Amino acid sequence: MTIADAQREIRARYAGGFHGQLVSGILWLVSAALSTWWAPHAGIVVLVVGGFLIFPATELLVRTAGAPAISADNPLPRLGMQAAFVLPLSMPLLVPVAHYRLGWFYPALMILLGAHYLPFAFVYGTRLFLALGWLLVGAGMAIAVYWSSVFSAGAWLTGGVLLVFAGLLRWNSESGMSKES
User: Fold this and answer.
1) 108-129: string of b/e by CB count within 10 Å (b at 16+)?
2) CB 6, CB 179: distance < 8 Å
3) CB of 17 within 8 A of CB of 169?
């Protein structure tokens, strides 16, 4: 199996990344809403706990949509899983960050999330994940420096960006415009 074939299978199974970004975007928006209208800690708990449910929820959507299976000889699901585990393994960094300045929680998580998306450009064979990753890293840095006094700003922005990229990734996958990266 060539790399291009493996990437094509991944895009076909996951609609280019649509399902995962949809689930993630909704979770970030729920967290933003809780942080805005209830309490910052409620939004944090929902995002952290819900983050561990993103993959199972994504798989449920993928299976409900009747997506094609991935060949047993496709090595990219293993790489995707390794890249996915970068995020939860780096999340303990958020504890001292939020303890020092609570307003940095979402921007710091945006930076971690953005960095975690970069390898998905290879897994899916689309540079849109590079754009998503760098956008989240840059926005996280900007919010930390200029807007950290608005606690949920990063969560609202990230939720919106993830939903926009869900649509872009699906369109990119369906239009066949993905290029191996």
Assistant:
1) bbbbbbbbbbbbbbbbbbbebb
2) no
3) yes
d(CA 171, CA 181): 18
User: For the purposes of burial, counting CB atoms within 10 Å of the CB of 68, is it exposed (0-12), middle (13-18) or buried (19 or more)?
Assistant: exposed
Q: Bigger pLDDT: 86 or 32?
A: 32
For residue 64, which of 16, 19, 97 has the smallest C-alpha distance?
Answer: 19
Is the pTM higher than 0.70? The answer reads yes
Location of structure tokens 């939004």: 43
Residue 38, burial from CB neighbour count under 10 angstroms (0-12, 13-18, 19+): exposed
Q: Are the beta carbons of 137 and 181 closer than 8 angstroms?
A: no
% of the chain surpassing 70 pLDDT: 97
* DSSP per-residue letters across 117-170: HTTHHHHHT-THHHHHHHHHHHHHHHHHHHSTTSTTHHHHHHHHHHHHHHHHHH
Pick from 179, 166, 7, 159: which is nearest to 79 by CA? 7
Residue pointed to by tokens 């909704």: 26
Neighbours of 14 (CB within 10 A): 26
